[in-house]
Amino acid sequence: METGLSSVEADRRLSREAAAQLREIAHELLNPLNALTAIAEIFRDQRFGPLPGDKYLEYASLAHGAAQRMLQLCDRLVLEDPAARSIETSPVGQVLSDIVSLFGPMAEERGVTLALDLPDSLPKLQVETEALTSVVNNLVVNAIKFTPRGGRVTVSARAELAENVAILVISDTGVGMEPQEVARNMAPGWTGALSTVGVHGDTGSGMGLAVVRRQVELLGGTLELRSRKDIGTCAIIRLPLGPV
User: Which of 112, 116, 143, 158 makes an SS bond possible with 172, Cβ 3.0 to 4.6 Å?
Assistant: First the structure.
């Protein structure tokens, strides 16, 4: 019994520490995100003259929208108690479609196909939409970063009504990982990332997977990572559908 209580208290301590770390990271991101939002707004509104083509205007609008969503998320992480986040009805199909549209230009620039695979209908989830968006954003960006030119990243979802769960999958044909790398990344208490430098030269903070795992847990779900070296990686998120 004592061992069980010690384990529970250790888990609670880790949870508090992870939440505090997330708030600290969010606070550090606010200033650069405010600057990026302002710059993207200048391009979107073409304040210094027309942009040379509709694509530039489209990308500027996407960048502005993404920066605003990140600002909202950071504000909530800094100001709110994670345990008190609001739960809302989230149209998961639309959330995933928006994410694929958002990161389509990033994938295209790197010669990677970013595809969306959804059934005709999906039940809505009772979750925090911003947190769900952040989870999938992180996984999609990681997948693009580690998929070589000519590869493919697929975002898909389905409902398993018998298990009362929604399953979201982000799979890629990227560089993959060895079994020990997968085990290390998914071990309790591990705070590293899939990698910090992608195959296209992209760099990262080293916090991608830690943030994703923590947010999935806050949503009441689980994250499973499957990977094979030189074959690809598959991230599987299971989230409760909630009462019908």
Answer: 143
Q: How confident is the model at residue 223 (pLDDT cuts 50, 70, 90)?
A: very high
* DSSP tag of 205: -
Domain count for the chain, please give it: 2
Q: Which domain holds residue 5?
A: 1-84
Distance CA 90, CA 132 (A): 9
Same domain, 64 and 93: no
* Contact between 100 and 155 (Cβ < 8 Å): yes
Q: What is the DSSP letter of 203?
A: B
pTM given for the model: 0.68
Q: How many CB atoms lie within 10 A of CB 168?
A: 26
Assess whether pLDDT exceeds 50 at residue 77.
Answer: yes
What does the alpha-carbon distance between residue 48 and residue 85 come to, in Å, rounded to a whole number? 40
Neighbours of 196 (CB within 10 A): 14
| Residues 56 and 144 both lie in one domain | no
Helix axes 54-79, 92-109, angle to 10 degrees: 120
Helix (H) or strand (E) holding 41: helix 2-44
* 11's tokens: 């888990």
